[in-house]
Amino acid sequence: MKNVWWIPLLALICACNRPESDTAPRSGGVVAAPAAPVASADNRPAIVCFGDSLTAGFGVDPGKSYPDILQQELNRRGYRYRVVNLGVSGDTTQDGLARLPLVVSEKPRIVVLEFGANDGLRGQPVSITESNLSQMVEGLQKAGARVLLAGITLPPNYGPEYIPKFNAIYKELAGHYQLPLIPFLLAGVAGDGKLMQADGLHPNEEGTRLVAAGVMRALEPLLQKQ
Fold first, then answer.
1. Are 68 and 74 in contact (CB under 8 A)?
2. Which ranges of the chain would DSSP assign to H, the alpha helix?
3. Which residue among 53, 65, 68, 91 is the active-site one?
4. What is the pTM of this model?
5. What CA–CA distances, in Å, run from 1 to 52, 156, 190?
6. What pLDDT shows up at residue 201?
């Protein structure tokens, strides 16, 4: 994998952590977590996509995030699920843990859990990141949700000691909790200028479609035709 896409990573991810004035929940954009779940008449089982800017759909048009595309593909294949995008740009695992009650309130059947990059970019101790993710997994499983864990990796300049320990978090959690695992959410997309935005960090619309396809491959074994 080419490493050039990681060069501006720390600066942009930190910039993405600035507060957003728009707090209304929506798909396909960078959103702040709403104070309370929005009531919905849609009684289909929920698949919650829970993560940071990669889930929120940073930099792509509304309706073009990977959860939006996932909903379209589920509909096309005849699966009756509603996809809820609970991605917030800049979130760390600690932020995600704080938002866990909002996810549980959706009564999700399945949660695609994608966190950790912002922890790593801040040099967070691996033990803390793993503990936060572990608490999220346990809370979601206790609420009756199946968890699909999505991994991420870090720029090479974070060193040969830190990176392997960070990468191992996802395999260890998947093994311990018997979770299906997407080893790297941006596999086949990161490092390709035709699939990434100009920042080199977030997938463009075409790249996002490939991300959604990868999530769908991992997700489909967990689905039931209604």
1. no
2. 9-16, 53-56, 66-76, 93-98, 100-105, 117-121, 126-142, 159-177, 205-219
3. 53
4. 0.84
5. 22, 11, 8
6. 84
Give how far Cα 95 sits from Cα of 8, 110, 141, Å: 23, 20, 19
| Residue 22 pLDDT exceeds 80 | no
Per the residue annotation, which of 52, 68, 89, 202 is the catalytic one? Answer: 202
Distance, CA of 5 to CA of 97 (rounded, Å): 28
Report residue 27 CA to chain centroid gap. Answer: 13
Reply yes or no on whether 199 is catalytic. yes
Class level of CATH domain 4-16+43-220: alpha beta
105 in active site: no
The reply to whether 68 belongs to the active site is no
Catalytic residue from among 95, 131, 192, 199: 199
Q: Tell whether the model's pLDDT for residue 10 goes beyond 50.
A: no
Count of alpha carbons within 13 Å of 106, Cβ hemisphere only? 27
User: What are the residue ranges spanned by the domains of the chain?
Assistant: 4-16+43-220
Contact status, residue 26 vs residue 38, Cβ threshold 8 Å: no
User: Among residues 206, 142, 217, which one has the least CA distance to residue 181?
Assistant: 217
Count of positions (residues) in the chain: 226
Give the Å distances, CA to CA, from 202 to 9, 43, 66, 173, 180: 10, 32, 11, 25, 24
Q: Give the angle 87-93-95 at the CA atoms, nearest 5°.
A: 65
**pLDDT grade for 28, boundaries at 50, 70 and 90:** very low
pLDDT one-digit tens code per residue, 175-190: 999 999 999 999 999 9
